[in-house]
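Milestone 3.1: sequence recovery, worked example.
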């Protein structure tokens, strides 16, 4: 498997059960997931875990994690100041190619819309103009 131009030996990846058992034991949150990122970075030179901070309609966001069996989704619905994202491990699921394509399409729509909107916002200012000071609306 090649991810971001890095050859990944699947046998060195953690399995689904290893990831879930570790998170159940050490915290179902981003703080515990950071240990897995560190392990992957030391092993592969890449964390092999990505935040997907766009709601799928069921969860606030999710983490995409490369594992021995493929790709797993670790959703979250809340964020804690100290522990980061609080994972919903009961909804962890394996991705297939169609699931990945859905995320690609969804991300492209989200990012294209955001970039167009921000460009429009930027153009709404005259050269060297800053946001006018106004009284709060409330």
């Amino acid at each position: 498997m090649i991810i971001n131009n890095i050859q990944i030996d699947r046998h060195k990846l953690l399995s689904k059960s290893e990831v879930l058992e570790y998170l159940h034991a050490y915290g179902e949150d981003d703080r515990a997931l950071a240990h897995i990122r560190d392990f992957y970075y030391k092993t592969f030179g890449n964390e092999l875990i990505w935040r997907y901070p766009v709601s799928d309609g069921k969860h606030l966001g999710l983490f995409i994690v490369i594992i021995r069996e493929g790709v797993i989704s670790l959703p979250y619905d809340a964020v804690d100041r100290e522990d980061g994202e609080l994972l919903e491990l009961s909804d962890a699921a394996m991705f297939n190619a169609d699931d990945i394509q859905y995320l690609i399409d969804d991300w492209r729509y989200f990012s294209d819309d955001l970039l167009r909107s921000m460009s429009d916002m930027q153009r709404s200012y005259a050269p060297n103009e800053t946001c006018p000071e106004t009284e709060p609306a409330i």
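The mean pLDDT is 92. The longest strand covers residues 70-80.
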